[in-house]
Amino acid sequence: MRIYSIITIIAILTVLAGCGTSRKTGAGETAIAAAKEQPAPVDTVPETAPFGNAALAGKEESESEAATHVWDFRDATTWLLGDISPERLAEPPHASWYLEGYASYNPDPEYLEQLRKIDISDLAVTVVLGTWCPDSRREVPRFMKLAEMWGFPTEKIRFIGVDINKVAPLDDYGSLGIERVPTFIFFENNLEKGRIIEIPVSSLEQDSRDILEGKYEPINF
């Protein structure tokens, strides 16, 4: 009888211990349920790309700090979007690549002279670039150096900046059919005459000459 009583007491204690564990589990489930009501990390879209310069957004730097700062151009805080002026490319943070690329490029004099003989009165150029794109950062300063030495007016060059998805916040942008950047589109009397896509076939000056003379054969990607 005593053994039976002892067994009964042990059984009761076991049940009570299980309820305690159950109560704790219930509290945990409540906490989990509350956590589930919070937005998941993947549902929270950051305002800027997480590459490193976002912390600098809104922070003013001195000229010396800006000159020595190493920028990560994949960061959305550095992107130029929509219609942009070429003057903005010569300002920090883009001056670091723009001015160096501009100064170091020397167009071929032979093709430069041929371009100077072409009537540019009815010509215009649209340059679509991504400041996050290494090809854009290489070719756009070179094209601007070419345009100056050629004598092509800057006011006849339209610059459009796009994001990493090749999208620009402009109503007329979709009609350009941009797939790669940079893209240089030449227009004559508002009609497209040809385009250099991403990298020149030969050189910017030779490709430009060939487009304007109807001799250009673009790269097939």
Indicate the topology.
Blueprint: H1 2-36, H2 63-68, E1 82-84, H3 86-89, H4 95-104, H5 109-116, E2 123-129, H6 134-150, E3 157-161, E4 183-188, E5 191-197, H7 204-212
Parallel strand pairs: 2-3
Antiparallel strand pairs: 1-3, 2-4, 4-5
Notable traits:
Glutaredoxin; 7 helices; 5 strands; 5-stranded mixed beta sheet; 221 residues
Question: Any overview of this molecule?
Answer:
- With 221 residues, the protein is α+β, with helices and mostly antiparallel strands.
- Helices cover 40% and strands 13% of the residues.
- It has helices at residues 2-36, 63-68, 86-89, 95-104, 109-116, 134-150, 204-212, and strands at 82-84, 123-129, 157-161, 183-188, 191-197.
- Strand 2 (123-129), helix 6 and strand 3 (157-161) form a beta-alpha-beta unit.
- Helix 5 (109-116) packs parallel to helix 7 (204-212).
- The longest helix is centred in the N-terminal third of the chain and has 35 residues, at 2-36.
- Mean pLDDT is 79; it is low at 6-58.
Please provide the ordered H/E string of secondary-structure elements: HHEHHHEHEEEH
CATH architectural category of the largest domain: 3-Layer(aba) Sandwich
At the fourth level of CATH, the homologous superfamily of the largest domain is Glutaredoxin
CATH topology type of the largest domain: Glutaredoxin
Short description:
The chain has seven helices and five strands, in the order ααβαααβαβββα. By secondary structure, the protein is an alpha+beta fold. The chain has two domains: 45 residues; 134 residues, Glutaredoxin (3-Layer(aba) Sandwich).
